[in-house]
């Protein structure tokens, strides 16, 4: 295939055959309990330098109990996939965990700008659609996927895409390299101890993200019995054999929302947004909400029962658990 033009961005590529070997040799299909704490899951499955992916974003079902643990454990040099993302990228950048970001869209913040200006974080430009397509390619076991977009844009120039001649039509087509993350963090509404996960409300290709990733950590609002899973199999979005760890984390999406359970805590988000403008204040924020909380329950205790009940009352319940 004749390549006409290449973007200048860096990318992390996994050979599809290497990924197939990983799944064959290291993904168990045994029906065994994967239940563990945030501390155990992050310590075991997230390594310095890993490529990290999310299903959705900080406003809705962001896996924040897992992200706080990543900062608490001091993970470094992570490469993030920022598709349809918001608060979580700024959070992990401010926590000193990130050095590279594939950016489709991410909410800005003072910590982002400081890190980028100082050369501490490199951003590779994509779009939400192209990052999603790269996950699809990774899930399908392909090295790349054709895409009708990016050509003629500045985004293409700073991406890692290529423009080639389509052998069937003789016309130009964009080629996107597949994405196979080292770790996917996904927050679910319900899950059994084996990893069969239910996600209610909006999502952004959670199945593709989970299938494309080498390791998958599911945090969940509720652990349900496998018999409930078997009685309504169509509600299972992510099957157990893709999952490496299950973490029980009620309010694990806080300060974001979880559809059908609780609304976003915008006051808390504003506290972080104000704190990150000043490194000294930001340090106090992390001391208060991350490092002084040894567990997720410590964090919830600090948020307070009355605040959590208020967020539950604000959320629309109809339709999600029927």
Can you offer a commentary on this structure?
- By secondary structure, the protein is α/β, with parallel strands linked by helices.
- The protein has a single domain (3-256), classed as Glutaconate Coenzyme A-transferase.
- Helix content is 36%, strand content 18%.
- The chain is built from 13 helices and 13 strands.
- It has helices spanning 16-26, 38-45, 64-72, 87-94, 110-117, 128-140, 154-158, 206-212, 226-231, 266-275, 279-291, 296-303, 305-314, and strands spanning 3-6, 51-54, 78-82, 98-103, 122-125, 144-147, 162-165, 172-177, 183-188, 190-191, 197-198, 215-220, 245-248.
- Strands 5-4-3-2-9-12-13 form a 7-stranded parallel beta sheet, with helices on both faces.
- Helix 5 links the parallel strand 4 (98-103) and strand 5.
- Helix 2 crosses helix 3 (64-72) and helix 4 crosses helix 5 (110-117).
- The longest helix has 13 residues, at 128-140.
- It starts with a strand and ends in an 8-residue tail after the last helix.
- The mean pLDDT is 94.
Mean pLDDT: 94
* Number of structural units classed as domains: 1
The radius of gyration is: 20 Å
* Order of H and E elements: EHHEHEHEHEHEHEEEEEHEHEHHHH
CATH architecture: 3-Layer(aba) Sandwich
User: What characteristic shape results from the CA principal axes?
Assistant: globular
Could you tell me the number of beta strands? Answer: 13
CATH superfamily: Glutaconate Coenzyme A-transferase
| Total count of helical runs of at least 4 residues | 13
Class based on secondary structure composition and strand pairing:
alpha/beta
Helix content: 25-40%
CATH class: Alpha Beta
What kind of sheet is the major sheet?
A: 7 strands, parallel
Q: Please name the CATH topology.
A: Glutaconate Coenzyme A-transferase
């Amino acid at each position: 295939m004749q390549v006409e033009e290449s973007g200048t961005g860096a990318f992390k590529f996994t050979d599809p055959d290497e990924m197939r070997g990983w799944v064959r040799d290291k993904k168990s299909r045994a029906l065994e309990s994967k239940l563990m704490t945030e501390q155990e899951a992050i310590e075991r499955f997230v390594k310095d330098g890993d490529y990290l992916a999310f299903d959705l974003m900080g406003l809705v079902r962001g896996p924040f109990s897992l992200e706080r643990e990543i900062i608490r454990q001091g993970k470094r040099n992570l490469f993030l996939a920022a598709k349809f993302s918001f608060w979580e990228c700024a959070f992990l950048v401010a926590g000193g965990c990130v050095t590279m970001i594939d950016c489709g869209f991410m909410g800005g913040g003072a910590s982002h700008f400081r890190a980028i200006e100082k050369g501490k974080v490199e951003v590779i430009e994509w779009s939400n659609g192209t990052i999603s397509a790269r996950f699809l390619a990774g899930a399908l076991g392909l090295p790349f996927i054709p895409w009708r977009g990016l050509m003629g844009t500045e985004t293409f120039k700073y991406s890692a895409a290529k423009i080639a001649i389509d052998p069937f039509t003789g016309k130009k087509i964009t080629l996107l390299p597949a994405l196979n993350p080292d770790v996917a963090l996904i927050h679910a509404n319900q899950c059994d101890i084996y990893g069969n996960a239910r996600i209610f409300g909006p999502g952004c290709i959670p199945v593709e993200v989970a299938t494309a990733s080498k390791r998958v950590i599911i945090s969940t609002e509720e652990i349900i019995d496998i018999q409930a899973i078997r009685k309504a199999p169509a509600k299972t979005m992510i099957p157990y054999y893709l999952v490496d760890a299950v973490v029980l984390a009620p309010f694990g999406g806080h300060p974001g929302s979880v559809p059908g359970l609780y609304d976003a805590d915008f006051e808390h988000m504003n506290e972080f947004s104000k704190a990150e403008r000043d490194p000294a204040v930001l340090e106090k924020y992390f001391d208060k909400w991350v490092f002084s909380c040894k567990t997720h329950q410590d964090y919830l205790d600090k948020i307070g029962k009355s605040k959590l009940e208020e967020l539950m009352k604000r959320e629309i319940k109809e339709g999600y658990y029927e």
